[in-house]
Amino acid sequence: xxxxxxxxxxxxxxxxxxxxxxxxxxxxxxxxxxxxxxxxxxxxxxxxxxxxxxxxxxxxxxxxxxxxxxxxxxxxxxxxxxxxxxxxxxxxxxxxxxxxxxxxxxxxxxxxxxxxxxxxxxxxxxxxxxxxxxxxxxxxxxxxxxxxxxxxxxxxxxxxxxxxxxxxxxxxxxxxxxxxxxxxxxxxxxxxxxxxxxxxxxxxxxxxxxxxxxxxxxxxxxxxxxxxxxxxxxxxxxxxxxxxxxxxxxxxxxxxxxxxxxxxxxxxxxxxxxxxxxxxxxxxxxxxxxxxxxxxxxxxxxxxxxxxxxxxxxxxxxxxxxxxxxxxxxxxxxxxxxxxxxxxxxxxxxxxxxxxxxxxxxxxxxxxxxxxxxxxxxxxxxxxxxxxxxxxxxxxxxxxxxxxxxxxxxxxxxxxxxxxxxxxxxxxxxxxxxxxxxxxxxxxxxxxxxxxxxxxxxxxxxxxxxxxxxxxxxxxxxxxxxxxxxxxxxxxxxxxxxxxxxxxxxxxxxxxxxxxxxxxxxxxxxxxxxxxxxxxxxxxxxxxxxxxxxxxxxxxxxxxxxxxxxxxxxxxxxxxxxx
Amino acid sequence: xxxxxxxxxxxxxxxxxxxxxxxxxxxxxxxxxxxxxxxxxxxxxxxxxxxxxxxxxxxxxxxxxxxxxxxxxxxxxxxxxxxxxxxxxxxxxxxxxxxxxxxxxxxxxxxxxxxxxxxxxxxxxxxxxxxxxxxxxxxxxxxxxxxxxxxxxxxxxxxxxxxxxxxxxxxxxxxxxxxxxxxxxxxxxxxxxxxxxxxxxxxxxxxxxxxxxxxxxxxxxxxxxxxxxxxxxxxxxxxxxxxxxxxxxxxxxxxxxxxxxxxxxxxxxxxxxxxxxxxxxx
Lengths: 579, 282
Fold this sequence. Notes:
The complex is a heterodimer of chains A (579) and B (282). Chain A has 579 residues and is α+β, with helices and mostly antiparallel strands. Chain A has helices at 2-24, 49-58, 106-119, 125-128, 163-166, 225-234, 245-248, 288-297, 300-307, 340-349, 380-395, 407-417, 434-437, 456-466, 471-488, 526-530, 538-578, and strands spanning 29-34, 63-65, 71-73, 76-81, 87-92, 131-138, 141-146, 188-194, 198-203, 216-221, 239-243, 257-263, 266-272, 313-314, 354-355, 361-362, 370-376, 399-405, 422-428, 491-496, 498-504, 508-509, 532-533. Chain B has one domain (3-280): MetI-like fold (Orthogonal Bundle). Chain B has eleven helices and no strands. Chain A binds chain B through residues 226, 246, 250, 302, 305-307, 309-310, 377-378, 380, 383-384, 386-388, 390-391, 394, 401-406, 409, and chain B through 41-45, 47, 50, 64-66, 134-135, 137-138, 220-221, 224-225, 234-235, 238-240, 243-244.
């Protein structure tokens, strides 16, 4: 017993010692709590958000986006567009070095773009696939040519990879390349990734831009939101990301914690089966007026009030309001808000006038307004939303049955079996609005287009906006596309959710939110460069520490004393019995 | 054993008596409750009604969508009981018929059926149920089916053992010698003698079935349009009732499951004592 205790005390002293020693060193470590782990360090094969956040730290692109969402120079210092709008010329920085000391040149850029085009891999492929020729003019000048004007050339943040490392791989062998060195040009150098524990970075002292304020950056990976918030309150991490409004309720009472709340760049939708009519589902769902009636019947404001404690926003069109310049908000007559009597009016105009004993409607030829909704068992909010929709539709005479299924079953049923009428799921977007708009194009039928919606008019608008070089004209086209979808309603956008990021404002300074209100996991890495640890009052904390250790020692001594007493009593008893 | 003495013994047994009383209370609630207390799972409250503690208007407070928890529990008692009893009936029918067939005929039939039973015995039942429920989709009848077809193996074993001793009795030989058919012997001699054991086993299996239903629903495999106690627990857990300390949301359904399962277990033990004279106190 005594041995164990003394060991415990020794351990405590050691921990305390290391903590004091840590305070004295020059290192400044920024610790960020996250729930999502990267899936790969290889930009060709990674899909998770967490991986792309890391690429933004270790790699640079030709351009970057600042907090106000403006395009600013990065590896390229300036650029110009030819008269015919088909050729882009980029002038590159001459003072850039890779993390391993090699010099960066235009050949690396040419290599990266061609490598992605040849392998057709990664999420960056879509952004640069339409570039036809790449010419290296000299070591620090490069030209890109395409057949049609390329509207999103400057918004493409494809990370530039070092040719001297990646040139040994081809489309097959690059799949297995783990990229554990992560040689880039970015402001942080990759140190190590301990699976499901942490990802560690150190600052790149030779970075050509603003060198990060902190010497090290660590993502601490948590399995549970409650634990992460607890760690933040204890000061074990300075920043916590990806939290729900329910998680942060308690933490908001702490005056040292600053919450950055913003609307996600994405939406949750109710998709309507738009595939070829078959016996597997009710074709009445393909009647636009019925879909409009369903939209009128739902009180989206009350749905977000009850299910999300008012933290989400009722939805309307495909591009979320957080994408201010691109979002289209329906106005006047075309706007559909909660109006059950209007819904009933629409249904009756379509001939659904016969009401059965349960209050459900059908038309003269016996077709009943009975639909099947699929919702995901993993997402309780969506299940609850489904229940509320069921109730709203019942009010106007539409019977809604709900199947709660897991993601795999939902995927099979929406992509293969097509035996559903509607389902609830969501999408997340990018800075370029085309990412979300592309989902419902005909060319995506067997890929992302999960409702099998196909409309030549819509495809035409999407193609036009992709090559429209005038920003205002492109915005008009993007809005036109949203207006068309809002009227056609293959997706009923239910709501835009909220995300929360917590920062210990007493421990970190220099953090400024981007234009959408977020500080990390956003389109810019500015806060990783500007975050600075506040010089803490170390004497106070070490005194506290000493006091805590003292109390623990005292307590353990008392416990040990009492236990000892007990066991001696026991042995006495045992002896007595023997006698 | 005569019927009267059977019931007398049961009433005399303290465990049986307590279990019976609790069970009867739940049956009354399930039968009469939903008629008196109307519960519509789609009757959402306003924003102010969400997660309110118990009050005069809401006897057991409100849930995360502003609905009355007491009403949900009364309505849930019916679902839990129906699922428990129906699923047990299914597994009893399968278990008894397989057990008797296997024990009575013996030989290859016995080998085959018992290996099948072994497979079902060693299969981890929770993952099996989860997979089946996910495949079939969440509806109350699918849940019944899933619990029923996964829970019969133990019964089949017990029934087979009893059948084996029963068929060696002399009167069976005599019945055979005067030309009674297999069906006649099973129906008139084996089944009535195995029945008390089946009955005692049924009660215990019901407890397991109710617990299985709660487990499945708690894991989100339940039918959301017919909320049972497990579904209520599921939504309580997922909507942060624990961290919000909304005890009125998760304690009552948990307690109800506990009491109902306890009542079946008590009755089961009591019956076991009566059927198995070795356990009877003298």
